[in-house]
Design goal:
There is one protein chain. The chain is mainly beta. It is about 5% helix and about 60% strand. It has 6 helices and 35 strands. It has a 22-stranded antiparallel barrel. Strand 26 and strand 27 (about 465-485) form a beta hairpin. The chain starts with a helix and ends with a strand.
């Protein structure tokens, strides 16, 4: 499929839609059927399309300014990875519609190669989740969800943005549904020269250009009152050039294409529900060590997944949930150290939920994974939530989670190690939520111990090899104070957050690289009729870039401020203007690669 050609057809088709239909909304189908259950016991942050408009450059920028996640980005639009609660990049699970999509080669995800406009809803959950969402769900998980509504008629949306550094972001979405059938299609295309300058370092982001496109389609049909069959697919294509410091250096780039598709058969009755999913995911990547030469290396990974989720209420207060899954992972490398490899993975999980009263509930879970050539531990989770009074609630979570070795860790030649053990973590957190008038205060202390961390070390044979050699400990605090008020035509939402993450290597006692001890965010969102204003602030503390806490190579503390205004006419047409990095701060999240100083964007939104 030529994605760009499909997007052109999709955008041009909107000229035909000159009318809309309004009906009473029936129900909304969410592909990740576990998420609503997760929210009963865990704090989950939901990011809406309105939130995405504030940080529409890429997913890294959105997560950096709107969530507790620390983002390590090798320059704007380049390779990017997350850190939850002082954990490493491979300790975050990326979940697409309930399916774990971390790379089979690396065991982690590249944030900037996930389409920002490809999801209807982005949700962020801190803390362990391997019992439900599998490998890598140690520090937290990022959920990219699609939804399909029923009985909503026709709706469409266009978004177009022009920004500094010759950046253009465009997306389109259309949906139609009646009482039995729902259809949604969307696409986006982003491109940027990305040639920003940072005078503080005498730096120009040469060869930093990128482009990416995505096409999404979803269909759901009600077979009967209690049954529906649904299909969702995503096709993604991206090219990232790697920045160079001098014009004399050789220009390189990285290209990737991915396909994700799943079909789901769902049955929902009063006492039980069952969701059977079959999914296929594919990742292709190519590295070019010279723009004018053929690809230097690459690979293809294919995953075939079957997952069944059975949920039964034994009595109204007692619910049992059985989740079974089987995967066949295949990988094939091209001059990348990986041959033709495959791996079978199976798992069985059981969860028991007890709703003692409307204000008190508990959940216990246990899981066993069967990973070919890997001895996997038994995982568990135990959670509870209590609302003793209207102004206070408390929840706790205790769990054991894991990350099994990736294809590169096991099969890379030379250096792969077939005797590796999974990385495992034991952890707990307690969330206290206080409410007083229009204020809400949330305090979450946590503790985590991770064993058998996989590290690549030099060997006497002259190459690097993967070993289980490190243990880590992380403890900290997540705190947020929010204020929300609506009166007459005014809406005000404001918040301030502080995050403390003490994450150390147990052998040395040093803070782990690229994990700031202190972080903070602040935001204000004000709406009055057709007018909208927002401001975002980000404070990042001292961040070491080396394992020996070398101060001269650390990233200095910084503060960044973004602001934006927009106006909406007839609830359909929006025109907005944003200034990113108003303070013109020199800052970076990775050594040697600064992020842009003050820059601007203008955007327009049309809703049909």
């Amino acid at each position: 499929m030529n994605i760009k050609r499909s997007l052109v057809l999709l955008f041009s088709s909107y000229g035909c839609f000159l009318f809309g239909q309004e009906k009473v909304i029936d129900t909304v189908y969410v592909f990740d059927n576990q998420m609503n259950k997760v929210k009963l016991f865990h704090k989950v942050q939901t990011i809406t399309p309105r939130d995405i408009e504030k940080n529409s450059t890429n997913l890294s920028e959105l997560l950096r300014f709107q969530t507790p996640v620390y983002i390590k980005e090798n320059g704007r639009g380049a390779v990017s990875s997350p850190s939850f609660r002082g954990t490493l990049a491979g300790h975050t699970a990326f979940v697409w519609n309930g399916i774990n999509i971390n790379s089979t080669f690396l065991g982690q995800g590249d944030i900037n190669n996930l389409p920002l406009f490809g999801s209807d809803q982005i949700e962020v959950k801190a803390g362990g989740g391997s019992v439900i969402y599998g490998s890598s769900a140690i520090g937290g998980s990022i959920h990219l969800n699609n939804t399909l509504g029923f009985n909503e008629g026709f709706h469409a949306n266009l978004f177009s943005e022009v920004a500094s550094f010759n950046t253009y972001n465009n997306s389109a979405k259309a949906s139609f549904s009646n009482d039995k059938f729902s259809f949604k299609v969307s696409g986006n295309y982003s491109v940027s020269e990305n040639d920003y300058k940072v005078d503080d370092l005498n730096y120009i982001n040469r060869n930093g250009n990128y482009n990416n496109s995505a096409f999404n389609v979803g269909v759901s049909y009600k077979l009967s009152k209690n049954q529906k069959i649904s299909w969702q697919s995503q096709f993604y294509d991206s090219s990232q050039h790697f920045p160079i410091y001098e014009l004399s250096e050789t220009k390189t780039k990285y290209e990737t294409q991915s396909t994700r598709s799943l079909i789901s058969w769902d049955i929902n009755n009063k006492t039980f529900s069952n969701s059977l999913k079959a999914a296929y995911t594919e990742e292709n990547f190519q590295y070019f060590n010279n723009l004018n030469a053929p690809k230097f290396s690459g690979g293809t990974g294919k995953n075939y997944i079957i997952r069944n989720d059975f949920n039964y209420f034994i009595i109204p207060k007692l619910n049992v949930n059985i989740i079974t899954e089987f995967q066949l992972n295949k990988g094939e490398g091209y001059q990348s150290g990986i041959g033709d490899v495959s791996r079978n993975i199976g798992s069985v999980a059981g969860l028991l939920r007890y709703f003692a009263t409307k204000d008190l509930r508990f959940e216990g879970g246990i899981k066993k994974d069967f990973v070919e050539d890997i001895n996997s531990p038994i995982l568990y989770s135990f959670s509870g939530k209590w609302n003793p009074v209207k102004w206070y609630n408390v929840s706790f979570n205790v769990s054991k989670n894991f990350k099994y070795p990736s294809f590169n860790d096991v099969y890379y030649e030379p250096g792969g190690n077939r005797d590796l053990r999974p990385e495992t973590s034991t952890q707990f957190d307690v969330t206290n939520e206080f409410k007083a008038g229009n204020f809400k205060l949330t305090l979450t202390p946590y503790y985590m111990k991770i064993t058998d961390l996989i590290t690549w070390l030099p060997t006497a044979m002259g190459y690097w090899q993967a070993f289980n050699v490190k243990n880590a400990e992380s403890y900290g605090l997540e705190s947020q104070l929010n204020y929300s008020k609506s009166f007459r035509n005014h809406q005000i939402n404001a918040g301030i957050a502080y995050y403390y993450a003490h994450s150390t290597n147990k052998e040395t006692g040093n803070q782990q690289p690229y994990i700031p001890l202190h972080r903070g965010t602040a935001n204000v969102d004000y709406r009055y009729r057709y007018f909208h204003f927002f401001a975002q602030g980000l404070m990042n503390g001292l961040t070491y870039t080396t394992s020996d806490e070398k101060r001269t190579e650390a990233i200095d503390p910084y503060f960044v401020l973004n602001i934006g205004i927009s106006g909406t006419l007839f609830k359909k047409y929006t025109l907005g203007f944003k200034i990113n990095n108003v303070t013109d701060t020199y800052y970076k999240t990775v050594a040697f690669y600064p992020l842009p100083k003050r820059n601007y964007s203008v955007y327009a939104v049309i809703n049909f």
